[in-house]
Q: What sequence folds into this?
């Protein structure tokens, strides 16, 4: 006869950071992005039935969002809590512990989000600088991610615009990030970390632009007339075609020829970084006429290039937005073109 009850429950408090944010991780295998959400909002605003991943938009019930560290923490607490009970059982019982229990009935963990034991780990100054904070325009839920996030975890509102603006701001903080890294790491490590950061931000800028362009396009009264394939806005020539059909304007009319060429080259570089491990191929050379590289060489992304890339994307989207908001000033744009 077992002395163990059929169901045990316990309260485990998950530590939050110094600002009261709780770490969460997306359960979607292809995403697994970590993000933060204000613990109070997790408790009060987020619904148990549906939580949205801010990065990929995946939805799952609220008990699916533990980070790896939190799962370890839960396991450790559960073991500490229940081992004494087990010690009173016969050895056999302990051995057959898992098998003898009704499936899923052993431990029901209920969470207490009061940060009674805040973890005293100061995040890297650099990581702090890269963190983007969001407050949902619809429901006010506050959350944070390293880099761009697009969906409110609580209501799923797609905040492409906020994400885009935040991404630009974060990229412009990169010089500060470099300084923060330099203060804590040796020179080689700084170079390495910073190179990765530049490359990563190139991807984030394109992802953010893509979401923003998509969201802007959806606001058009005639958006329904077009069926655009996924990720179309990552392809500049094709999305330029789409804009021309929808609003009669091409990207080429929003930038100088030189700017347009540079922007296309940056997009191609992002493609190489994301899909070819940064190794230049003939296709890249043909598409960009970038003769700085031979096939087989690896791209070198500089801080000044990311800044330029950011400026170009901002210029493009500002014009695009103005055009879509019905403040189309064809005359002025034509003057720019000439
Ligand atoms: Zn996700
Ligand atoms: Zn929301």
A:
């Amino acid at each position: 006869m077992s002395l163990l009850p059929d169901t045990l429950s316990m309260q485990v408090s998950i530590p939050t950071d110094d600002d009261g944010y709780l770490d969460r991780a997306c359960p979607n295998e292809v995403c697994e992005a970590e993000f933060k959400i204000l613990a109070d909002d997790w408790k009060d605003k987020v619904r148990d039935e549906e939580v949205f991943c801010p990065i990929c938009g995946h939805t799952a019930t609220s008990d699916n969002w533990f980070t790896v560290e939190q799962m370890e923490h839960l396991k450790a607490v559960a073991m500490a809590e229940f081992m004494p009970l087990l010690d009173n059982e016969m050895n056999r019982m302990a051995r057959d512990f898992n098998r003898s229990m009704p499936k899923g009935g052993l431990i029901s963990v209920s969470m207490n989000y009061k940060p009674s034991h805040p973890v005293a780990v100061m995040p890297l100054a650099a990581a702090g600088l890269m963190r983007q904070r969001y407050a949902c325009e619809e429901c006010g839920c506050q959350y944070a991610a390293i880099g761009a996030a697009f969906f409110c975890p609580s209501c799923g509102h797609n905040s492409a615009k906020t994400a885009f603006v935040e991404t630009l701001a974060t990229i412009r903080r990169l010089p500060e990030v470099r300084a923060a890294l330099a203060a804590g790491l040796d020179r080689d490590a700084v170079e390495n970390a910073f190179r990765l950061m530049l490359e990563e931000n190139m991807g984030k800028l394109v992802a953010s632009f893509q979401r923003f362009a998509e969201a802007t396009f959806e606001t058009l009264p005639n958006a329904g007339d077009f069926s655009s394939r996924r990720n179309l806005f990552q392809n500049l020539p094709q999305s330029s075609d789409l804009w021309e059909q929808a609003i009669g304007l091409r990207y080429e009319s929003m930038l100088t020829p030189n700017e347009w060429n540079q922007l296309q080259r940056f997009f191609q570089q992002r493609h190489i970084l994301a899909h070819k491990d940064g190794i230049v191929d003939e296709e890249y050379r043909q598409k960009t006429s970038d003769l700085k590289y031979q096939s087989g060489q690896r791209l070198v992304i500089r801080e000044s290039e990311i800044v330029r890339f950011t400026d170009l994307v901002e210029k493009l989207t500002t014009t695009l937005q103005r055009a879509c908001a019905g403040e189309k000033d064809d005359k002025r744009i034509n003057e720019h073109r000439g």
